[in-house]
């Protein structure tokens, strides 16, 4: 059946640009072990540019008798303005192959087969990406592609649940009773605010109850449980895919080989003393007290900024309460007349939610820009030892902040809004002493407002992200190279063309991962209220893969290649979000269930606790059973790794025996 997938495949020379050899870490002392046809091309371009950068990052430029021994590395020369830029060169223009016969024009091949939007249905040439950009960028695109493929299944099930709500529209007894003149029209509700609001009829919320049913029905309860299983399958299957790439890209022994090479030049400069280890000299900072002080200061700063977010959220809640009262007061005082709503299809609750969500989104974007610089500054102060440690520290700080920043308003609507209202004659007010009465949910529940919040924040973030990632670099490049674009390549040299492109910082991939992990949180933590979230994410990611490819290939200088055998700290963050998503979705599903199916002789809170306890334990048991059943490393890959090591050891042993015999014969 392979012919079915032919339209999705790329040519073999693009998918597999190099033969698959047995490999071993390079050792110049054993150069005869390696198959070398041409020393100039033995190392691929990504390895060569990594070696050059390693040397430049540590090269001293002070005089031997100088007291300032910190004058090291190209980064310091860039910071003080001695040099304007330092970057590896692309091997050709992206829209045409190089005229140089020695150039492989891999940039052109990547653009032709990968970076064009109309190739969105094609597989990604991961081996060519790895060869040109290095393993770290290759792993990112492998993960993003796999995540997008898995989203397809979640999107299909979510769409089915939404269609179920749409087609069972007329069978919804709850909405029928609310909209009925005999039932909802005869139920007079208490005023929504204290002074200016009048009584109102329950059937005035008819439209919102129908809208709520599309997202809040029995199907979404099933979908919440399905997503608990889906997220486990996604993470476990990714581990297997990652293990396969680890083997294919010769990264199995990565940590042992790269530990020394991963030391940051900034760390080496700051370390003025050594501690003798039994095996080797290990660099340490001179003062442990200094390190502890810096770490405490850094985390105090993180807590301060998270407190700032919480203060902003409280401000938005106060806005919601004030505007909610204003919208509610638009209704007429007479309990028998039709109610004049803010619009023909929305309630005061929904109108308040839409405006508050827009304000919240603006606050989120502003705080993100401000905190980003603070997070980098405090991570630099900690002076992490390796590049991996630096990224992990920054990842934890940024994600904690972003988690609170993006999700706190959603948690408020999902779990707190409408839960502390009080009763007629004894309402609860914000802070107890203010005149702002805690807001209530629609009679149909708060989940339609949570859906509104998710749509605005999620869609707004995706649009804003694509503008930042694609439109802004394109405009800057267009303006910067406007005078030179018409010149032939003989006058407009390769390095000048690349210099006019945007710089890809060492944290460039960090922001790409962060964007996708925040999206992952949206589609897992609150999916019980918005089953179309995976579909929205799928459509965004199909575009995201090609936008990122186009950006790397056409708009940015070639980044310094880096090795990575996994997605790093993001794996643990995804695992944490997956576990937390079970708690949030089961809680929302049980809240919906207990709200509708409650026995007269049972307290609502006790029903909720019973349902939550049983459902959450069942979902967790299934989740961990599925994770246990699926091995992290495929058996085939384990066997190949063992076989390859055995053959290499056998070959090295035979070679050394041959050398010894040769020397003894000569003697």
TrEMBL record:
Entry similarity comment: Belongs to the anoctamin family.
Transmembrane segments: 140-167, 218-238, 282-302, 308-330, 350-371, 520-543
Main location, first listed in the record: membrane
Subcellular location(s) per record: Cell membrane; Membrane
Protein name: Anoctamin
Residues of the Anoctamin dimerisation domain: 2-126
Keyword field: Cell membrane, Glycoprotein, Membrane, Transmembrane, Transmembrane helix
Membrane topology annotation: Multi-pass membrane protein
Signal peptide stretch: none
GO cellular component: plasma membrane
Organism: Hucho hucho
Domain Anoctamin transmembrane: 129-644
GO molecular function annotations of the record: chloride channel activity; protein dimerization activity
Database matches in Pfam families: Anoct_dimer, Anoctamin
Superkingdom classification of source: Eukaryota
């Amino acid at each position: 059946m392979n012919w079915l997938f032919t339209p999705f495949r790329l040519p073999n020379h693009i998918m597999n640009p190099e033969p698959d050899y047995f490999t071993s870490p390079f050792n110049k002392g054993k150069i005869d072990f390696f198959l070398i046809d041409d020393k100039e091309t033995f190392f691929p371009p990504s390895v060569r540019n990594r070696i050059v950068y390693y040397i430049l990052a540590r090269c001293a430029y002070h005089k031997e008798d100088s007291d300032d021994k910190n004058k090291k590395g190209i980064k310091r020369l860039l910071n003080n303005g001695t040099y304007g830029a330092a970057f590896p060169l692309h091997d050709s223009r992206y829209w045409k192959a190089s005229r140089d016969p020695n150039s492989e024009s891999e940039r052109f091949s990547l653009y032709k087969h990968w970076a064009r939007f109309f190739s969105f249905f094609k597989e990604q040439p991961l081996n060519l990406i790895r060869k040109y950009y290095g393993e770290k960028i290759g792993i990112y695109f492998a993960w993003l592609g796999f995540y997008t493929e898995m989203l397809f299944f979640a999107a299909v099930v979510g769409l089915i649940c939404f269609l179920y709500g749409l087609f069972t529209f007329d069978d919804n007894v709850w909405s029928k009773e609310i909209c009925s003149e005999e039932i909802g029209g005869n139920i007079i509700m208490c005023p929504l605010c204290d002074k200016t609001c009048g009584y109102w009829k329950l059937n005035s919320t008819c439209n919102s109850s129908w809208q709520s049913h599309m997202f809040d029905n029995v199907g979404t309860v099933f979908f919440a449980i399905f997503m608990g299983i889906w997220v486990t399958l996604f993470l476990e299957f990714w581990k297997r895919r990652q293990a396969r790439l680890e083997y294919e890209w010769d990264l199995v022994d990565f940590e042992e080989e790269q530990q020394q090479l991963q030391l940051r030049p900034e760390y080496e400069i700051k370390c003025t003393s050594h501690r003798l280890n039994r095996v080797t000299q290990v660099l340490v900072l001179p003062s442990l007290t200094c390190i502890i002080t810096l770490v405490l200061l850094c985390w105090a700063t993180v807590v301060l900024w998270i407190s700032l977010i919480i203060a902003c959220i409280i401000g938005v809640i106060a806005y919601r309460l004030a505007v909610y009262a204003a919208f509610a007061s638009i209704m007429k005082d007479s309990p028998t007349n039709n109610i004049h709503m803010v619009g023909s299809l929305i309630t005061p609750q929904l109108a308040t939610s839409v405006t508050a969500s827009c304000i919240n989104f603006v606050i989120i974007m502003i705080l993100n820009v401000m905190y980003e610089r603070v997070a980098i500054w405090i991570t630099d102060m900690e002076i992490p030892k390796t590049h991996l440690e630096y990224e992990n520290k920054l990842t934890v700080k940024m994600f904690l902040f972003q988690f609170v920043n993006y999700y706190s308003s959603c948690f408020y609507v999902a779990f707190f809004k409408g839960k502390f209202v009080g009763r007629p004659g004894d309402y609860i007010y914000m802070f107890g002493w203010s005149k702002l009465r805690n807001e209530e949910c629609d009679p149909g529940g708060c989940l339609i407002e949570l859906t509104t919040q998710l749509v605005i924040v999620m869609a707004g973030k995706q649009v804003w992200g694509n503008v930042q990632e694609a439109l802004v670099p394109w405009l800057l490049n267009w303006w910067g190279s406007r005078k030179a674009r018409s010149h032939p390549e003989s006058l407009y040299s390769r390095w000048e063309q690349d210099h006019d492109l945007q710089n890809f910082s060492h944290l460039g991939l960090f922001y790409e991962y962060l964007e996708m992990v925040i999206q992952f949180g949206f589609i897992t933590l609150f999916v019980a209220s918005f089953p179309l979230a995976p579909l929205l994410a799928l459509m965004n990611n199909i575009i995201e893969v090609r936008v990122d490819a186009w950006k790397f290939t056409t708009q940015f200088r070639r980044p310094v290649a880096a090795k990575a055998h996994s997605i790093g700290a993001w794996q643990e963050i995804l695992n944490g979000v997956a576990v937390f998503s079970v708690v949030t979705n089961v809680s929302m599903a049980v809240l919906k269930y207990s709200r509708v199916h409650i026995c007269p002789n049972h307290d609502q809170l006790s029903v909720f606790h019973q349902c939550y306890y049983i459902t959450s334990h069942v979902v967790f048991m299934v989740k961990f059973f599925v994770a246990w059943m699926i091995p992290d490393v495929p058996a085939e890959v384990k066997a190949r790794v063992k076989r390859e090591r055995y053959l290499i050891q056998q070959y090295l042993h035979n070679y050394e025996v041959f050398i010894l015999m040769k020397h003894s014969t000569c003697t």
